[in-house]
Amino acid sequence: MYALVDGNNFYVSCERVFRPSLNGRPVVVLSNNDGCAIARSNEAKALGIKMGAPWFQIRHMEETHGLVALSANFTLYGDMSNRMMSLAAGLGPSQEIYSIDESFIGLQGMRGDLTTRSHAIRARIHQWAGIPCGIGIGHTKTLAKLANHIAKTAERKPGSYPAELAQVCNLTALPAQDLDDVLASTLVEEVWGVGRKIGAQLHQCGVHTVLDLARLDPAMVRRRWSVVLERTVRELQGMQCIELDDAPEPKREIACTRSFGQAVTELPPLVEAVSEFASRAAEKLRKQGSLASQLLVFCHTSPFRPGPRFNKSVVVPLRRPTADTGKLVWAAAAGMRRVYEPGYKMAKAGVMLLDLMPGNVLQGELDLEDEDHRDRTQLMVALDALNQRYGKGTVHSGATGGSNKGKDWGMKQERRTPQYTTRWEDVPVARA
DNA sequence: TCTGGGGTCCTAGGACCC
DNA sequence: TCTGGGGTCCTAGGACCC
């Protein structure tokens, strides 16, 4: 049995802890470069503001509806998250931190009334961390997720579900008929693992509610869709297919990408940008104790704007797996010089570290013939510690070309490796 | 004018080998 | 020489998550 503890409107709730005057008002938190809304208060949701809505499309509500917009402060949210997570951990014997605002709690072996206990934990998180939460309980992670959705919706939209399910929804304590009623009044796309595409396909097949989905034959679902959706169906039926992952593996790839506030056409600022990205990515890489074997660099024009399109990337092989900022920055800069073509308004660029393997920077590189290398890697570990303690950008390795503090890079969507990736050897050198 | 930034898993198909 | 089956590895792309 699992619980899912999830902070409501998390970024907005974090801001409200320090600015109580925002309570009761429509508030959004905006992404990098104030591009679009990545968190919305209940009041903002009630205004019809969608997740990811571009700021320029909703800003008129500042005047018409008193909408308040805040620039994101991710350092603050990370701090608040840590507090919330350690309090949530009190609910059961194991915990998987799933995202900045959500954690699954394993409830195996717990005695007593879990609903009452959850209400108590919820009150404690609100009182000590200042964050309002919803808690959902189910026999599987998928059901716990669904329960959490019901707990939050019942609170936000009275009448949508029985009032006693608000804030804490324990599906395992519901009589069978009540459970069916709840599942029948929830649409399939609310299920964890069902997105827009598959949701639409399900509706076409007459599968509209979660109850409809839960009653499908798993074997048929596997044939018609995939093993992934089959697993979801089984989980809805109460069979555990997804385990609690309380000791996650290190990341298999690490990315740092940004959209630019204003389009960039020249090579030097692009090289500077990806150098900074590589430096950030190298920090993440060392933090998880990995080395990278390949580095991918890309840049592209805006998909939203007219004009000539450009979208290219290159994979730069690294001679040896490394976590050395200097080497990664060099590779990123070299890669950008290769992909760059003049005459385009670049909207976004990024760096991805690929083909990661475990390896301590120091121990992993001791056998290098490079004499300075050991000293440099030791220095980098020291710099990482300082930056972590005193904030990003406190000190830089000389290789990264100095501070980019205050630079405003914007944002845009990029989910997968760019399409036109070429091999390093096949790319002609750009004219600089 | 102005439109996130990260990640994961699964599958299909090609290359290569025996 | 010709033909074929089967396994493995890799990559690209689709779908999903927050």
TrEMBL record:
Biased composition regions of type Basic and acidic residues, renumbered to the chain: 405-432
One GO-annotated biological process of the protein: DNA repair
GO MF term set: damaged DNA binding; DNA-directed DNA polymerase activity
Superkingdom, taxonomy of origin: Bacteria
Tagged with keyword DNA damage: yes
InterPro entries per record: DNA/RNA_pol_sf, DNA_pol_Y-fam_little_finger, DNA_polymerase-Y, DUF4113, Rev_trsase/Diguanyl_cyclase, UmuC
Positions of the UniProt region annotated as Disordered: 392-432
Keyword line: DNA damage, DNA repair, SOS mutagenesis, SOS response
Pfam families: DUF4113, IMS, IMS_C
Gene Ontology CC terms: cytosol
Ranges where the UmuC domain occurs: 2-195
Assigned protein family: Belongs to the DNA polymerase type-Y family.
Descriptive protein name: DNA polymerase V
Species of origin: Acidovorax delafieldii
